[in-house]
Structures are given as C-alpha cells and as structure tokens.
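[audit] Reproducing an earlier prediction to check determinism. Same input, same settings, fresh worker. If the tokens differ from the archived copy the diff job will pick it up downstream; this log only records the rerun itself.
[audit] input (288 residues):
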Amino acid sequence: GECGEPPRLNDGFPDIDLTQTSFPVGTRIRYRCNEGFSLAEGKSPLITCQADSSWTAFVTVCEANSCGAPPDLLNGYYKTTSVVFGGIVTYYCNEGYNLVGKDTQNCIAHGWDGRTPVCDAVTCDDLPPIENGKTPPLLQENWEYENAATFTCNPTYTLIGERTIYCRANGTWSDIPPKCKVVECFRPDPPITNGRIIAGLGPKYKYRETIIYQCNEGFRMFGKDSIECGENSMFPKAPLCISDEASTVMPTTRGPAEPPVTVPGRAPTDQMPSPTSAPKKDIGLILG
C-alpha cells in the first residue's frame, strides 16, 4: 500500500519533494518550521506511512520565536504589538526629550532588528551676560530641559525680573534674563491730603518697597491703599481721600419722556419753553 500527500503544517513544511503525491509504506517524513518559528517543545517532527496507508498521528506544531521584552529606553517608553516574530515595538520620549534614531524595531528570526533609539534632552540657548550682575556658570555642555539658571547682582544693584529661570520642554527659557539696576525711590511730596501714612515711612525706599495710606475719619479712599517703588525709581500716584458727603452723588430721577407734539407752522413742543416752569439743571459734584 501507499500513503497520499502528508498533512500540511502551519508555519512549516515537510522535508520532501513537493511534487511527490504518493509514498510507500514505511516512509518517514520530517517537518521543519519556517524562518522565525521553532518546533514546539515535546512535539515530534516525524510522521510515518503505516501498513493501512495512513500517516501516524500528526502532532507537530511550529511556534513563533520570541524576541523577549524590548530594551528599556532611558527618559522614554515603548509600546508593542507583540514580542514574537513579526511583532513591532514603537518608542516614545518623555516630555522635554527628543528621539534620536528610528522610532520602531521589528521582531525578526533572531531578535529585534536595528539599533534602539535614544532620548536626548531638549536644550535651550546660552544665556547672555547681564550688566552689573552675574550669569550662572554652565556646568555641562548645554543648558538642558528643567535646568535652572539663577542670577545675582553686584552690591548696591537691585535685581529686576525673575531671579531664577528654567529651560522648558519646547527649548525656550521660562522668562527673559533679569536686569541689575540701581533703584531708589523717595517719599512722594506733597503728602496725602486728609490722610496719613501708616506703614513705610521712608524717606528712602528700595525696589518694590511700599507705602500704605489710611484716610482720616469722615473720608473715603479712592484708589489703592498702597503704592510700590518701581524699577524707574518712582512711585505711582497716591490715592485720594474724599469726604463721605462729597463722595456720594445722588442720581437725578426722571420719568419717561413724552413724544413731541407737532403743530403746523410751529416748532415741536419739546423745543418750546414752558410758560409755567423754568428749565431745570442737574446739579452734581464732579471729582477730579
């Protein structure tokens, strides 16, 4: 007797002449797996043609080779479709880092192909020197993401702006470098009318030092109760203290306006003086 064609194997093939369609009793056929696949452990790759013209039980299985977990990516992470043959891993960088290299690797017959990319820190431009102060020294090749730069001023100079700025994820600084200036304000003259200074008596003030005012009893304050020494060595305008009576303006109450009456040959009634009443004027207090 003879056996017919041997059974097919997923992801593998019989080690025979594929044009042969019949096999004598006693023929033994070995199966092999395609590239990227291996015989499952404990499964025999052989079958035999038996006297009843049938093949012995077919238990061969080809399994995809595993590439194992992809390599870790410093300052980044990855996502995979699979870690066996045919799988793809895609790499990503954390905020503030740029990916250098190819962002994917494929699981091939003998592991992950190509080289694993790296995540390099975003860099910011060098900082210019500031006049009358010190720019922090660069302790590495470049200013990198999340690096902090802290500035100082020479004695007698005041720092205007942010003392510390940071390199951001988009490669720009969180603020412009500060300035070092001589700032000295003097107490405004004349003093506030109908009020007094209750804090910050001066007479000289440094940058951002404040004067706080309070109005006398019976007077209401218009404006902020404090002023601050600015970087131009000047204070803004002080608040005003207005008497409670003068600060309250009573609105004039009027009824709804009546439509003008037009008489042929005469001006509309709203343009003619009333014979029984004099024109009225609104009286109010205008505050400067």
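[audit] rerun output stored. Observation attached for the diff report: The two ends are 122 Å apart (CA to CA).
[audit] end
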